[in-house]
Amino acid sequence: MPETNHDLSKLPMQTLRDIPQPNAGAQQITALVKEGGRITGYQLSDGRVLSKEEGIRLARQGGIRGVGVAARNGNEYLKSLPDENEGNNLSNLPSVTQ
């Protein structure tokens, strides 16, 4: 049986559709906006609250650091870039309601 060399550490990056380069003034996501347990938006480090679609658009423009754009079942969403720090993963951020 041939030996295969799979680097599983690269798997999280392969799930991302787009990895934008953040610009100098890029914000960080500090909280998730949720309705009924579903993420509907993002709160940024400058206090702004964006819808999910606005967050994806801003991330693609380099306005949000530490995230990439992923898709599941045709729906795009932001996903943390793997960086060995579990504390800044989007799933570990607090939730706020609108």
Structural features, described:
With 98 residues, the protein is mainly beta. The chain has one domain. 13% of the residues lie in helices and 35% in strands. A 4-stranded mixed β-sheet has the order 4-3-2-7. Strands 1-5-6 form a 3-stranded antiparallel β-sheet. A hairpin with a 2-residue loop joins strand 5 and strand 6. It starts with 10 loop residues before the first helix and ends with a strand. Mean pLDDT is 84; it is low at 1-12.
Write a brief structural summary.
The protein has 98 residues and is mainly β.
Task: Note the topology.
Layout lengths: L10 H4 L1 E3 L10 E7 L2 E7 L4 E3 H9 L6 E6 L2 E6 L14 E2 L2
Parallel strand pairs: 2-7
Antiparallel strand pairs: 1-5, 2-3, 3-4, 5-6
Count the beta strands: 7
- Which of globular, elongated, flat, extended, rod-shaped describes the shape? globular
Helix content class: 10-25%
Characterize the main sheet.
4 strands, mixed
Structural class: mainly beta
Percentage of residues in strands: 25-35%
**Cα gyration radius (Å):** 15 Å
Strand order of the largest sheet: 4-3-2-7
Query: Please, how many domains?
Result: 1
Low-confidence stretches: 1-12
Topology as a string of helices (H) and strands (E): HEEEEHEEE
Provide mean pLDDT, rounded. 84
Rounded to the nearest angstrom, the distance between the terminal CA atoms is 56 Å
Number of helices: 2
